[in-house]
Amino acid sequence: MKICRTVEEFRRARPELGKLALVPTMGAFHEGHLSLMKKGKEVADSVAISIFVNPLQFAPTDDLANYPRQEEEDFAMAESVGVDAIFAPETASFTQGIKTTVSVGGVSRLWEGEHRPGHFDGVATIVSKLFLVTQPDIAIFGQKDFQQCAVIAQMVEDLNFPIQLQFEPTMREESGLAMSSRNEYFTPDQKAKACHLHDTLMSASTQIKESDQSISDILLSSQRSLTDHNFAPEYFAYVDPVTLEPKEHRISNGRLIVAARFHGVRLIDNIGVFL
Amino acid sequence: MKICRTVEEFRRARPELGKLALVPTMGAFHEGHLSLMKKGKEVADSVAISIFVNPLQFAPTDDLANYPRQEEEDFAMAESVGVDAIFAPETASFTQGIKTTVSVGGVSRLWEGEHRPGHFDGVATIVSKLFLVTQPDIAIFGQKDFQQCAVIAQMVEDLNFPIQLQFEPTMREESGLAMSSRNEYFTPDQKAKACHLHDTLMSASTQIKESDQSISDILLSSQRSLTDHNFAPEYFAYVDPVTLEPKEHRISNGRLIVAARFHGVRLIDNIGVFL
Fold first, then answer.
1. Whole-prediction pTM value?
2. Could you tell me the residue range of the domain that residue B233 belongs to?
3. Does the distance separating the beta carbons of A155 and B124 come in below 8 Å?
4. What is the rounded average pLDDT for all residues in chain A?
């Protein structure tokens, strides 16, 4: 496994990698990340991952400084699933003095875009850079960040990146809690209770599928259930899976998306509701 | 010479082109364009040009609708200098519904950026698309659009485009008038008089090199000279060649840049002042 600290190092390594799948990450790996890397091995000759905690996608009030970092463990985990190359640039050298922003209108303005202004500009800019450095044939992202997938899909289409995108299902704990590096912030008891976020999504999905309650009533009672369980919801919405626009009536392939704080930790999750 | 109307067509043609130089254009060719294409032949295996009158870089009040279009002549001229491939997409299919913007801070905010709001966002977005479609090894631009060169250099560095940039000197009429597709708008008499723009640049350069007048006095008298000759100057400035920031004192490699309207036609020009 080749570890590249600079753009030039990765470029030198690139020709030997053949048809390449890239998994962009911020490190702090769990089974969710590893499943994306394994998927990469299935669909390409080689898998590269990037590890970069992107300062551009964190607001000053976000958890950038505390975001979990465990590079040696990450490298070992990547190697264990057969990753061929890692691009892990120094933060300073990769983003210092950067004046260019890639900004995706429409889908990036809603939900996460509203609650984390500038977040998706940071994501789109860094993902563009990672694509241009690593030149993958395929890029793989987890559906846990569902809106991020939609933003990147729009960007790849708009700018004609010659890259095929694959979005993979969210990996979950046995409790249903979506795997996330931020789960590390919880005590074991908090983590056990955090699964109520997924329970609420599942219950709303069942209500959409099986009841004749209105969408707005279902969303309202979901939010209330979260509040009753000590979550502070930022949004709980039923949306179009491509535009992320809210839907007041049932559609065949809607998505339930949620963001909520629990014991100070901001969690997001989503599930598909297929009628 | 291969003519490609769609992204897919160009992508299919790309492998045969080997080491590729791209000359992005808006068509309406003159000797300036042809000199860039010839340069491309010198530095790469193949030369591709793009012809795309980019609606994103024109303001509603600009001359988009009237911008000269002469596709058949352009194709013949390109072929005559050995161009290997042309990417000439339909406007609608190439930019319709696009929601992503590439925006270069700093250098793109000054001068043309002030007088043509959104112009450089349009340029950076389309040039990104053209780079991603054509995947050139080298891209060649004319220094006539000096600030555009600086904006693209910043973008290529910031986003890690794996492309080497070459900026070529402005081609001029015998009178000194910079060649431009917009010169077509002039009557012969107006065109003859339009060379005063270049005369004024040359005279300011001489004053910077040989007199001890202050920069601000030199710029002021240059503007006055333009006004006296029926030009309506938008700016006449002495700037750093990378950041485009105005310089109040002499530097070793300053640039004089100017934009002015003459008989309703907006002209830009620039020259290097090397001390």
1. 0.96
2. 181-274
3. no
4. 96
CB pairs under 8 A between A and B: 70
What is the rounded average pLDDT of the residues B47-58?
A: 93
Whether residues A106 and A209 fall in one domain: no
Domain boundary among A127, A146, A168: A168
Q: Which residues pair with B269 in a beta bridge?
A: B258
Cβ B154–A11 below 8 Å, yes or no? no
Question: Looking at residue A130, what is its pLDDT?
Answer: 98
Q: Give the residue ranges of DSSP H helices in B111-214.
A: 112-115, 119-134, 146-159, 188-193, 196-210
Note if A33 is an active site residue.
yes
**Same-domain status, A127 and A159:** yes
Average pLDDT over residues B35-53: 97
Which amino acid makes up residue A112? E
Going by C-alpha positions, the residue among A41, A54, A1, A24 that lies closest to residue A133 is: A24
State the nearest Cα–Cα gap between B103 and chain A, in angstroms. 5
pLDDT over 90 at A62, yes or no: no
Nearest chain A CA: its distance from B226 CA (Å): 34
- Regarding whether B162 and B94 lie in a shared domain, the answer is yes
In the set A30, A33, A198, A249, the catalytic residue is A33
Number of domains in chain B: 2
**Span B77-110, pLDDT tens digits:** 999 999 999 999 998 789 999 999 999 999 999 9
Task: Quote the ipTM score.
Answer: 0.95
Q: Could you tell me which residues come within 8 angstroms of residue B181 by beta carbon, excluding any fewer than 6 positions away? A: B26, B27, B28, B29, B30, B67, B68
